[in-house]
User: What shape does this take?
Amino acid sequence: MPLVEIDRLTMRFGPVTAVDELSLHADAGEVLALLGPNGAGKTTTVETLEGFRTPTSGTVRVAGLDPVADHDAVMAHLGVMLQSCRLYSAIKPREAVRLFASYYRRPLDPVALLERVGLHQRAGVAWRKLSGGEQQRVALALALVGRPEVVVLDEPTAGLDVEGRLLVRRIVAELRAEGVCVLLTSHELDEVEKLADRVAIIDRGCLRAVGTPADLAAAVHRPEIRFRAPASLDRAALATHLGAVVDEPEPGTFVVALEPTPATVARLTSWLADRDVALSGLSTGVASLEDVFLRLTADAPTPATDQEDAP
Amino acid sequence: MNALWAQTRNEVVLSLRQSEQLLVALGIPILLLVFLSQVDLLPSSTDRPIDGLAPAMLALAVMSSSMVSLGIGTGFERHYGVLKRLGVTPLGRPRLLGAKVMATFGTEVVQVLSLSVVALLLGWQPNWRPGLLGLAVLLGTATFAGLGLLLAGTLSGPANLAACNGLYLVLLLFGGIAVPASELPGPVGTVAWCLPTGALVEVMRAATTAAQPVGRALVVLAVWAVVTPFAAASTFRWSPSS
Assistant: This one.
């Protein structure tokens, strides 16, 4: 049984469909990343797992339980890092971790945990005097203190410095090794590539693709030769000459759907040379996760805010 | 440590760390008690103003800890998303609420003790009726905690802060605390009688003096003690955004 199961989840807020028929699952010892632009529905999705929102339709299960109906039981299995964690302004990290430890049956040792997230030097400083990165580390510690089977991290590296990012990466790897199921959201591709076993690309509430970073790149890999030339280029003639489709995604940029072998590149350049066409920026492509992402989320509107705002 | 105790301890420790909380809970009632008993500012029908003043300040103390401290504290926890974070732990609402109730009662015990000591030093000669005193604290706390949480659970943080403090001041001046309801002019006095403060002062007075009919005030207070927690429970939103 998967520890996290999302089955045809739909979330509507009035006329807005924030999540549309989304199905995903994640198992023990697996790191699943929800990747998508701001406003894609990532936070709305994880908030249904956290029991904050009741699905409009579809079901979500954490450790086989309904986060709304079996709220208290689910919380015993779940460790959460919210997108923006705020605590009592006067509480100290040491007190916060001890307090949260008291909520769980078999908590981790608070002192060792603070050391693990690199906060032992700052354990006695009031929350409001901690830096943003230090507050993130407290939030991470609070997500782990109850020895959860499922950890949900909403934008865990947002606003963290390099050291903090390395810490998150190390802890996620440790959790995976301990057999914890980790679900994280991010809009940062390189982070996701480093953190996740599987990536689910979400855009405007829909699941566009899911797989390992390598699988996803391979799936959209289409051989191509890309070059820049004057927009007056006779595309039809070139296509006939090469026996392949020639696209012009933007004026002056041309994409030939051919495997970029030396022979095909030579045929292209000699055709251009015959016509004395100025050539610039010749490149051949192997898809990266970024290409996949950009291709799948092509005409997404750009929201003005940084945060994902569900109404 | 047990979650309920840990949470109660947390509520107490954090409120002790806020000096404005101490000021509202202890400073203002004691200051007013001393000031009003020494300065012949207010009309008084009895020869011993302290006997009327002490129970009024006990009522004020209950209002300050259960409405102002609890309401403002909870309002900001909600506003800043602390309640949201607690919502994804196994603590649960009953234990969170239980911890707040216990912390409030704890504060009130300290308030009653210290106000009583100061009043005794000022010449107060109370005639304790412990059962009635306990009932007054209980009903008063339910009423004002209900009011504070009603505001905290529906208004934004800053608006809640203003509303709690404003209501505190209005009830202090016109609710039968600073000036007894019986000595407020005509209709204002009648309104004060129906307010929870006026009723609580009456019950407190009965609980600390020899004999006084208390039936009507007790009924008024009991009605408030049911209405405001119910209103708070049915309108409270744990997170401003959801």
User: Anything to note?
Assistant: DSSP finds eleven helices and 13 strands in chain A. The first strand of chain A starts at residue 4 and ends at 13. The interface with chain B takes residues 50-53, 71-72, 75-76, 78, 80, 82, 84-91, 95, 98-100, 102-104, 142, 146 of chain A (CB under 8 Å).
